[in-house]
Amino acid sequence: MLGSLLSVLVCFLVMAPSMTPWFAAGDVITCAGTVPMRYRSDKISITDFGGVGDGHTLNTLAFREAIYRIQHLRRRGGTLLYIPPGVYLTESFNLTSHMTLYLARGAVIRATQNTLNWPLIAPLPSYGRGRELPGGRYMSFIHGDGVRDVIITGENGTIDGQGDVWWNMWRQKSLQFTRPNLIEFMNSRHIIMSNLIFQNSPFWNIHPVYCSNVVIQHVTILAPHDSPNTDGIDPDSSSNVCIEDSYISTGDDLVAVKSGWDEYGIAYGRPSSDITIRRITGSSPFAGIAVGSEASGGVENVLAENINLFDMGIGIHVKTNTGRGGVIRNITVSNVYVENVRIGIKIVGDVGDHPDDKFNPNALPVVTGVRINDVWGVKVQQPGLIRGIKNSPFTGICLSNISFHGVAGRGTTPWKCSDVTGGSQGVSPWPCSELMSTHGSGSCSIY
């Protein structure tokens, strides 16, 4: 329908299936092949359904009709929905399986700021309520529930949440329900997001929850540093997630791995596992790479590597709390550069609030097997803070080849540690006594 030009634009989506989970291009390891890109022979344009990219016309009906057509007139191999250059104002909408949402260069899908018509959905069962307020929550701007084989990509087009109206309601405490995410996939699998700009989310930017086989690569995520709770990417009770080659600058954690909140997350019991984060650059007043604090379903097998962080509150942050429960284990962070940060490494058990007064204070989280290697930083105010839980000390906290330099003329404050065991080698300034030097034995035998 759109002719040979569009075929050329999407030809990069063709990829032979691979039995290998990771693909090496030269010396660069990537996620390619984890979720195979698919060529869609059936192509439609939002303009075929009356879409107008003038920045003023409301295109909600056009998006919903186009996606209805994809869902009900199923084409073999799925359908590509093409968004040409222009600014397409719309209310929130749902995606469907076997589709590609493709934004051309200069294309913008922009959220309306009419919050009165924003749909409400049920709270996540692993949270028991909205993250900010009791009850339901506003549906994400672009939403997918129970879908598979969905690609959101393009030529660096933009998905704009116009979140300032929501941020202001949060500041004025006039919200009735939890703010919407920009993109959320629930109960879904085989998802790809790539080559796009995501900006000004009302709340968290990209939130895959109860998902598997998710790839997020070559994206830019932007929000002002004073925008509240605008996390970049939050894999939540999800498995086999790969995040790579992206720039994130937001008002909260750049990447935060989660798995539910207190008694609700414990009961739901779905961990986040096998999460890979690599080649991320970014800036935030909060953390660069975070685990938690909502991690009640457990988090395991996380690898974060080749990370560059500037003007941060915290470089690497593992955070939990009494009442959370859950096991956080086998977390590896390596090859990290930080510049102008308040705390280089923070691993603590007293962070985060509770959904209600029904949490079990005896549900103590377990944190074990956290390995942080090859980290270098300048203008670091405090190199590290590791504070475990008295009745559940953190174990196997292993530090290797870490060098933090303070602000010129002021140096750095000392490490602070309590209720923790592990080891260290080649760490400067020298860490706390609880992390004795280790030479190839015990829980830190990786050295």
Features:
single chain, globular, Polygalacturonase, 447 residues, glycosidase, Pectate Lyase C-like, mainly beta, 4-stranded parallel sheet, disordered N terminus
TL;DR?
By secondary structure, this protein is mainly beta. It is built from four helices and 27 strands.
Structure in words:
Residues 1-26 form the signal peptide. By secondary structure, the chain is mostly beta strands. It folds into two domains: 42-245, Pectate Lyase C-like; 253-447, Pectate Lyase C-like. Helices cover 8% and strands 47% of the residues. It has four helices and 27 strands. The chain has a 19-stranded parallel β-sheet that branches. Strands 7-12-15-17 form a four-stranded parallel β-sheet. Strand 1 and strand 2 (28-30) form a beta hairpin. It starts with a helix and ends in a 19-residue tail after the last strand.
- The Rg value, from CA coordinates, equals 22 Å
What is the β-strand count? Answer: 27
CATH superfamily descriptor of the largest domain: Single-stranded right-handed beta-helix, Pectin lyase-like
Helix count, DSSP H or I runs of 4 or more residues: 4
Give the oligomeric state: single chain
CATH top level class name of the largest domain:
Mainly Beta
The helix fraction, in percent, is under 10%
Note the overall shape: globular
CATH topology term of the largest domain? Pectate Lyase C-like
Low-confidence stretches: 1-25
Family: Belongs to the glycosyl hydrolase 28 family.
Signal peptide: 1-26
Organism: Protea cynaroides
Keywords: Glycosidase, Hydrolase, Signal
